[in-house]
Amino acid sequence: MTLIERGHCGQEASWAGGGIVSPLYPWRYGAPVSALSRWSEGFYPELSLRLLEETGIDPEYRQRGLLYLRVDDEARALDWALELGKPLERVDGQFIYRKEPNAAPGFDQALWMPTLGSIRNPRLGQALRARLAAMPQVTLHEETAMERLLVEGERVRGVQANGERIAAERVVVCGGAWSAGLLETVGYTLAVRPVKGQMILFRAPPGLVERVVLLDGRYVIPRGDGRVLAGSTLEETGFDKATSAAARESLRASATRIVPALADCEVEHHWAGLRPSSPDGVPMIGNVPGVAGLYVNAGHYRNGLVLAPAATRLLVDEMLGREPIVDPRPYRLD
């Protein structure tokens, strides 16, 4: 197997996100996203332990739960949880401040999802790359510009990258926000576009924030060393990844509304990434119509890390002719 990466493995949206192993408001998504999310959520604890054992790099999977401090569609959320058997419940103020003593005062109720996990996604990417690099049957080509797909008749024959032809009987396009551009080289239009998200990182003392807390669409995510991420923006700016002072201040204001003590903490880092958005947030997984051997796994929008294990497994099931883990029809390109 050959992996071609235009930059360094795991350095785009996979690195830039927050690492929450769930859609932010899962009840607002349709069945196709929920099906992949459920499978992936159950897979991450095992994956994290395996990567730590095999690479020595700890992806820092933490299952500390999530507090929703204010939810406009609470009834819908609780109905969704009842239907799917999810442990989502309404809790009172005493519960909130027992779990998160530094959360903003004045909340007398919230929603609590105890099973939600988070992972330190940059370290997850490092661990996955290290594992691949140790596999003799895998060849990594990093800092390699993918120029075009090579198609003869109605079958893929490989790719051209950095001026070199790399032959292959099967090719998977999984280039995130850049996937549409790759498929344009064979005349296929993929409805995936970039949507920028900016985030900031606070250098906070350990224990200031213990779990993911979400308020009005913005969130804080603690790391094992005390650092706290805050995100994120949604911006239609094409492939521009520039950060802005306005976004930084907006994110800082949102974070301090959730945990006021963050106002005393240094903003250590500020960055942006490009999400691969699809029209309805449902990823496109499967064979490209009319081109045998050419596959796509793209368009996961805000849930790339959340859905990645299930989306990958579903595509491999199709490529190997196995029984799929979920119904593949909602994700097909046709």
UniProtKB/TrEMBL annotation:
SUPFAM superfamilies for the chain: FAD-linked reductases, C-terminal domain (SSF54373), FAD/NAD(P)-binding domain (SSF51905)
Keywords for this protein: Oxidoreductase
Gene: thiO_1
Presence of keyword Oxidoreductase: yes
Organism: Modicisalibacter zincidurans
Domain of life where this protein originates: Bacteria
Lineage: Bacteria, Pseudomonadati, Pseudomonadota, Gammaproteobacteria, Oceanospirillales
Family matches, as Gene3D superfamilies: D-Amino Acid Oxidase, subunit A, domain 2, FAD/NAD(P)-binding domain
FAD dependent oxidoreductase domain mapped to chain residues: 2-317
Protein name: Glycine oxidase ThiO
